[in-house]
Amino acid sequence: MKAQYIAFLRTHRGKGKRSAITDIAAVERTESYVPRKVTCKGLPVLTKHYQTEGDDLNGTHKHYILHKIVPLSREITHLKGEGTKAQVRFSTTFSELMRVNSVGEIITAKKLKIS
Questions:
Q1: How many domains does the chain have?
Q2: Global confidence as pTM
Q3: Backbone angles phi, psi at 59, to 5 degrees
Q4: Tens-digit pLDDT profile for the chain (115 aa)?
Q5: Which of 21, 39, 81, 102 is deepest in the core (most CB within 10 A)?
């Protein structure tokens, strides 16, 4: 299944703010097998993260080319006790995402039987 959009879960927002999905962007295209060195170029914090995690900077990953990032009209919060569902990749429909009030309420496309 090709990604049509990316939702951004913002974490560690400080001042007692809960983690939340705050923005969304349509995916223009994806590029597979992009070298991490390309992605990390000019981003020393990301380079340090890979090195700290023991990831090989010669490795590759998928790179998403996005259209404009658009703030949601309301945040979709990650409430205490909802577990780590928001920390992993999940697939859902855009209408499902816009219907929920919290990350824990998201029903994945797989559960909706959408292919």
A1: 1
A2: 0.70
A3: -70, 180
A4: 677 888 888 888 888 888 888 999 999 998 888 888 888 888 888 888 888 888 878 888 788 899 999 999 999 888 777 765 544 566 787 888 888 888 888 766 555 554 4
A5: 21
Residues facing residue 7 across a β-bridge: 24
Name residue 105's amino acid. E
Q: Which range marks the domain in which residue 107 is found?
A: 5-112
Residues contacting 33, CB < 8 A, separation 6+: 60, 61, 62
Instruction: Find the angle CA(26)-CA(103)-CA(109) to the nearest 5 degrees.
Output: 60
Burial class from Cβ neighbours inside 10 Å (0-12, 13-18, 19+) for residue 91 reads middle
The C-alpha atoms of residue 46 and residue 36 are separated, in whole angstroms, by: 10
